[in-house]
Design a protein that fits this description.
alpha/beta; two-stranded antiparallel ribbon; 308 residues; 10-stranded mixed beta sheet; single chain
Length: 308
């Protein structure tokens, strides 16, 4: 199986280089890398071009404007589907490192059947802990609860979370938000967005992630979407990847906590809308987006525009 690997770059090109270079040790080399520079205002695209434009396996795209996380990644997913003809696509943050040499080999042989839409693996953070998966039941009620009482622990929202935690947990026993690695659980979960493997079951139906968010809450919305279209998310701990966390956000925003709160709140509101949609509307909104970008390869620039 040939795998498409989509890497979204914004400003932080040095991490993108480290991520790409970590692929050299993979035992499975049957892959294509699509790097999407999300209209960085620095030297990112020039630096990446100088290193990779003549590499047959690496495709360097640049968007006309900063599209955010979902549509930025969708640019690469559309390119994988429509230009490269790939059906199985690994979407990763640019600040992840392939530390397990068999990571892609495992995914290439993974049996997804007909009902698995997204696969997630162990993701080891800078604190040494596994970030995957995240307890969340993708339902309207669950999203409404998070919108009414924004307990975005995963986004480290400071004092707001302390108050919310006291209100929510009064009289309750605290429970972890992450699945213990050695204890199986039937509790609903979603997968961490820094490394998600979109199977052909998902890619054949949708042209990427739900496109209306700019930053944050994409994992929960992806869980909602999968449930709506009749596909499952599946976590496996047989392979792992390393995640540095929030590197591009730290370069992009000075008031990082305030920005996180603003975007997270807005994205949860979008999640509320998705939770009330039928599969047909979700598919229509996702697949009718337009994407324009350039490809820089072998010293030539080619412009692509996709209208649906």
């Amino acid at each position: 199986m040939e795998i498409g690997i989509v890497i979204l770059n914004y400003l932080n090109w040095t991490d993108t280089v480290e991520c790409i270079d970590s692929l050299k040790n993979q035992t499975h080399q049957f892959f294509q890398v699509v790097v999407v520079d999300n209209a960085s205002k620095n030297e990112s695209f020039a630096e990446l071009t100088s290193r990779y434009e003549n590499n047959e396996k690496i495709h360097l795209l640049q968007t006309e404007e900063n599209l955010g996380f979902a549509k930025g990644n969708n640019t690469g997913i559309i390119y994988c589907k429509s230009v490269l003809g790939l059906e199985n696509i690994l979407v990763i943050n640019n600040d992840v490192i392939f530390t397990d040499v068999n990571y892609l080999a495992f995914l290439s042989k993974f049996d997804c059947g007909e009902d698995i839409g997204v696969v997630g693996t162990k993701i080891i953070g800078s604190d040494g802990l596994n970030q995957n998966p995240h307890y969340f039941n993708p339902t309207h009620k669950a999203v409404l609860r998070e919108y009414a009482l924004p307990l975005m622990r995963k986004y480290h929202l400071g004092g707001l979370l302390v108050l919310g935690s006291k209100i929510k947990n009064r009289g309750r026993i605290n429970t972890p938000t992450r699945l213990p690695e050695t204890i199986p659980s039937e509790r609903p979960y979603v997968l961490h967005g820094s490394a998600i493997f979109l199977t052909k079951n998902y890619v054949k139906q949708l042209n990427g992630l739900y496109p209306e968010t700019f930053l944050y809450y994409e994992e929960e919305i992806l869980g909602l979407v999968c449930k709506k279209i009749g596909l499952k998310m599946l976590y496996t701990d047989e392979v792992e990847i390393y995640h540095k966390e929030d590197q591009s956000s730290q370069m992009s925003f000075q008031n990082l906590e305030g920005i996180k709160q603003k975007f997270a709140r807005k994205s949860v509101k979008i999640g509320l809308r998705v939770s009330r949609m039928n599969p047909e509307k979700i598919t229509a909104i996702t697949n009718k987006q337009s994407y324009s970008f350039i490809l820089k390869k072998d010293g030539k620039v080619k412009k692509y525009t996709f209208h649906h």
